Amino acid sequence: MRLDKFLSQNSDSSRSLIQQAIKAGRVSVNDVIAKKGDQKLLGDEIITFDGKQVEAFQTRYLMLHKPLGYVCANSDSDYPVVMDLIRLPRWQELQIVGRLDIDTTGLVLLTDDGQWNHRITSPRHECDKIYRVTTANPISTDTAELFAAGVQLHGEKAPTRPAQLELISSHEARLKIHEGKYHQVKRMFAAAGNLVVALHRESIGNIQLDPALAPGEYRALTAEEIKSVAP
Ligand code: URA
């Protein structure tokens, strides 16, 4: 890879600033001041910019505790977006792995590994997702059976796949689903004659939202977590 490309991929500086910096002798390769941006790198060189070593970025895998009122998007004209919470270089390259509604809280995964994202969200591999649901009306006793059998949602060709509902109290339950249709949980409860008033995603596959993360906080996934959802 060219030196200027490496620097633009792995620093916050624009290509033109990097060219100026190279001309000004602020960039070194293995302790030798670089003269040209098109200098070829083999990959094992130590690159310094203003005396600081520039490391090659690693692929990133994050879990975020999404707060209420944030849109799962890179930008929005009316509301804050989850990317506003991410203080990392090249945040624009992060993809949201399975979006949540603005009024849903909980686990959101972010990555710049498109294949990993696809493994988790593609209908063929889709992982289980567990939501904690609070409803306006008491959850009727037949709701679990209805969800286990599959619900025909308006505008969908096929009923939902069997889902497991575990009651926590009269108005609260944990729902495990295997798909990610648009507004799926809210639509399933609407089909059962109820209304979701609060929704929180607790897990995706084997990845559980870390209880140490307050709303708005994020952390890198561990190697086991990364492997567990897309082995
Ligand atoms: N189902 C919904 O209805 N909303 C979400 O945000 C996630 C799942």
UniProtKB/TrEMBL annotation:
Keywords: Isomerase, RNA-binding. The keyword RNA-binding applies. Residues 1-59 form the RNA-binding S4 domain. Its EC number is 5.4.99.-. It is an enzyme of class 5 (isomerase). It catalyses: uridine(516) in 16S rRNA = pseudouridine(516) in 16S rRNA. Pfam families: PseudoU_synth_2 (PF00849), S4 (PF01479). It comes from the Bacteria. SUPFAM superfamilies: Alpha-L RNA-binding motif, Pseudouridine synthase. GO terms for molecular function: 16S rRNA pseudouridine(516) synthase activity. The keyword RNA-binding applies. Responsible for synthesis of pseudouridine from uracil-516 in 16S ribosomal RNA. NCBIfam families: PRK10839.1, pseudouridine synthase. Belongs to the pseudouridine synthase RsuA family. This is Pseudouridine synthase.
